Amino acid sequence: MSEIKLRTVTLYKEYFFEFYQKQKQKVRDKILWTFRIIETQKQIPTDYLKHIEGTDGLYEIRVQQSSDIFRIFCFFDESKLVVLANSFQKKTQKTPMSEIEKALKIKMEYEKEK
After folding, report:
1. Least confident piece of the model among 27-31, 56-60, 79-83, 103-107
2. How far apart are CA 56 and CA 19, in angstroms?
């Protein structure tokens, strides 16, 4: 039985892809599995997608593979398209502000080019 896509995860430039290419196969598989959840679930659990407080429409996709934690910033374009921005491996409890600022710049760049 095939799953119905409710939204589409898409790349914007090379930001996410460069990060993705450097990951081990197990991490890549888990990232793709998480994307499938985002694309097919009506209500996405906050374990996988969470709004970043204090931002205008910036979200983080949350991926955990064994003890490694990854964050992929994204934003919505017309509610059906999830646009991927930058990504990083999380090593501390708090998401670094520099990564959030980078994601917001990418979002602004995307909106200007649209």
Report:
1. 79-83
2. 24
Candidates 24, 98, 97, 102; CA nearest to 63 is: 24
Query: Structure pTM?
Result: 0.93
Label each residue of the chain as H, E or C. Answer: CCCCCCCEEEECCCHHHHHHHCCCHHHHHHHHHHHHHHHHCCCCCCCCEEECCCCCCCEEEEEEECCEEEEEEEEEECCCEEEEEEEEEECCCCCCHHHHHHHHHHHHHHHHHC
Is 110's pLDDT higher than 60? Answer: yes
Which of 18, 6, 4, 7 minimizes the C-alpha distance to 82? 7
Structure-token pair, residue 89:
């491996």
pLDDT averaged over every residue in the chain: 94
Give mean pLDDT, residues 30-56: 95
